[in-house]
Write a structure and sequence with these properties.
Shape: elongated
Mean pLDDT: 90
Helix content: under 10%
Distance between the termini: 58 Å
Number of helices: 1
Largest sheet: 17 strands, mixed
Structural class: mainly beta
């Protein structure tokens, strides 16, 4: 294992990379997989294989095939062609995950429309839109997260469009359009948010159409 890889200009790697730390402020391309303790990107990064790391910090634009980490913190653009598995996922910016985001704690603040096919395994999920994004003229009403399914214990959503929400305690906030909600404890709906049908576990009549 190499101790440190630091890219300041342009670098392309055709082999699997294993290093204690990777940092990049330029353009880096990995044709295979990357395994590291610390992965920090402040430029443009492409990983065509699997990225495995303890902590990932993305301040630029990162595109990956698959990401496995203990902690992910992205403040730029993060695009993953398959899945992300981590304990903590924090993102402020743009996020696209074409398959599944599996994390215990999720906090997403969008500055542009984002897409995640499925969110699961979470104890707590918070999704919202940055105040600048939904108050500026050009961004009004256009910044949202698009999902098929969101599943977790405590779910707080704003500016989210989803087919199915499954949770214990669910808050459906402003700018949300949800087809179906399943909950077991509490459900709060912000005025103006739309939900197609509501199901509460344990009720004999557990469906309410709005």
């Amino acid at each position: 294992m190499e101790e440190k890889i630091n890219v300041k200009g342009y670098a392309k790697y055709d082999r699997d990379i294993s290093a204690e730390m990777f940092t990049s402020v330029g353009q880096s391309i990995f044709m295979q997989s990357v395994c590291t303790d610390v992965f920090k990107n402040s430029g443009t990064c492409l990983v065509k294989g699997k990225c495995t790391t303890k902590t990932m910090t993305n301040l630029g634009s990162a595109t990956m095939n698959m990401l496995v980490a203990e902690q992910v913190n992205s403040s730029g653009s993060l695009q993953v062609k398959k899945s992300v598995k981590t304990k903590t996922f924090q993102a402020k910016g743009h996020v696209t995950i074409k398959e599944e985001l599996d994390a215990q704690f999720i906090d997403i603040v969008m500055t542009s429309t984002s897409h995640i096919q499925k969110i699961s395994g979470a104890k707590e999920i918070t999704i919202g839109s940055h105040v600048v994004s939904y108050l500026n003229f050009f961004g009004m009403g256009k910044k949202s997260l698009r999902c098929l399914r969101i599943e977790g214990d405590v779910i707080r959503l704003e500016h989210t469009v989803a087919d199915l929400i499954v949770g214990e305690t669910v808050y459906v906030g402003k700018g949300c359009h949800i087809k179906e909600v399943h909950y077991t404890k509490d459900l709060t709906i912000y005025p103006g948010a739309t939900i197609g049908s509501i199901h509460k576990k344990g009720e004999s009549e557990n469906e309410k159409n709005l």
